[in-house]
Amino acid sequence: MSEFDYVVLGAGSAGCVLANRLSADGASVAVIEAGGPDRHPWIHIPAGYAKILTHPHLTWGYRTEPDAATGHRALDYPRGRVWGGSSSINGLGHVRGHPTDYDLWAQKGCTGWGWEALLPYFQRHEAFAGGGEGRGTEGPQPVEHLAEVPPLLGPLAEAARAIGLPVQADMNGPEREGFATFQQTRRGRRRVSAARAYLVPALRRPNLSLIDRALALRIVIEGGRATGVAIRRDGAEQVVRARREVVLSAGAIGSPQLLMLSGLGPGEALAALGIPVMRDMPGIGANLQDHYIARMGFRLAAHRWSANRRIAGWRLPLEALRWAMRGDGVLTWSPGMFSLFSRTLPGLEAPDIQLNGGPLSWAEAPGEGRWPGLCIGVPEVAPGLTIGVWQCRPESRGSVALASPDPAVAPRIAPRHLSAAADRDCLVRGMRLARRWLTAPPLAGIVAGEARPGPAAESDADLLDYAQATGGTVYHPCGTVRMGGDPAAPLDPQLRLRGVAGLRVVDASVFPDIPVCNINATVLSVAEKAADLIRAAARAA
């Protein structure tokens, strides 16, 4: 069968939601995915993220364009290429945005996307074991508190109180500001990606087909309407046709790339590559937003506070046994075990800085320069703690552009991190907040000093230099096919591509602005709402 009611491009977080919800009422659905099944064992072990972020088969292997504001470095830019997409390789963090994030979307013309309208969709997707005000408990996506709470987290919470910030029992509860432990997309010892939560259960339905290991070449547009998708699989090309709609869910990098390959995007740039221009849409590929992280390292006074020794040498197999037998231990950890949200300036309506981390620290990489890099995944010999600092609402905007008309060639990704002066200032304020927190009295005798960047970095210029030379993405790209009420927005508030019938985009690329959070929970909620919009349109037809 090569014709379906809906063709969904991408089996990442959004695509898995759509596959499940659109097929639930009997519509025929095809999901096209470039990657293969999620069989790799490191996918299902929470701490396995450190082993697969740059895996040659499970990710796209993207690298950014070098940029002066980030030390002229080409940064790894991991995106999942496997069932579940980036939800199969991420750090499992389940974090809602601040309510004002979504209210700002609505204020920008995204009617129906304010907090009150989106809250039911956050609740719909969640199966939060802890329950609580405003939380969902019966959705497909399991969400759990940490399987192991490291002993350091208690003193860290007291240190937050000591600097005037509250401690929250639920980081996704009514109040966001302050200290909280992370929640994970996990059930017991195992990661539960969107593929496991939504896609795999739905594959039992005869009306849902998954076409994996298939490279999407372009969207087929006939008479101003999207009618299908051209793909290459096992060396052969074919067209998978859609009777109702094509839904593009290839992510903040893949979705604009595929639109541009289809002749939808900045006309002059497409014509220069020999691509026939179907519609000149400069907004496609623009507005790329991401969180940029600077990792600070702190020395701890004793190994009881740190997991460094637990994952080194002969002790790592013991942790593996603990994971298998008890379902806890370091292999259930995420890169973020705790978080501190704070406002660093008066008058802000939401936190502008997020600090997160865990009681692990990584060995420095050999190399020249003032600020050595890190060997992520290789623990230091001495006990340590890592604190990641990032600005919640960056002003910097980047882009995704085609490098070639060949769909197999990676696009040019230019995040333009720290290109806005306000972002640089905010990041420095966040690093100073981290220092104030980690030197608070409750941590006396536990935190023995700062290792990275260290006390030699005294001035704002020193701290910024360190952040620019060593920082990187938090893996939250979004905004490259934004929705909005203005005609320059590629999508209308129904997520329909302007000027092309039968074509929607549903993934992180539709965000007008990046939310104050890790973004996967928002992607799931957007996809849940999009499924309702699509089904309502079918009923009205």
TrEMBL record:
<dbReference type="InterPro" id="IPR036188">
    <property type="entry name" value="FAD/NAD-bd_sf"/>
</dbReference>
<dbReference type="InterPro" id="IPR012132">
    <property type="entry name" value="GMC_OxRdtase"/>
</dbReference>
<dbReference type="GO" id="GO:0050660">
    <property type="term" value="F:flavin adenine dinucleotide binding"/>
</dbReference>
<dbReference type="GO" id="GO:0016614">
    <property type="term" value="F:oxidoreductase activity, acting on CH-OH group of donors"/>
</dbReference>
<dbReference type="InterPro" id="IPR000172">
    <property type="entry name" value="GMC_OxRdtase_N"/>
</dbReference>
<keyword id="KW-0285">Flavoprotein</keyword>
<feature type="binding site">
    <location>
        <position position="82"/>
    </location>
    <ligand>
        <name>FAD</name>
    </ligand>
</feature>
<protein>
    <submittedName>
        <fullName>Choline dehydrogenase</fullName>
    </submittedName>
</protein>
<keyword id="KW-0274">FAD</keyword>
<comment type="similarity">
    <text>Belongs to the GMC oxidoreductase family.</text>
</comment>
<dbReference type="InterPro" id="IPR007867">
    <property type="entry name" value="GMC_OxRtase_C"/>
</dbReference>
<dbReference type="Pfam" id="PF05199">
    <property type="entry name" value="GMC_oxred_C"/>
</dbReference>
<feature type="domain" description="Glucose-methanol-choline oxidoreductase N-terminal">
    <location>
        <begin position="251"/>
        <end position="265"/>
    </location>
</feature>
<dbReference type="Pfam" id="PF00732">
    <property type="entry name" value="GMC_oxred_N"/>
</dbReference>
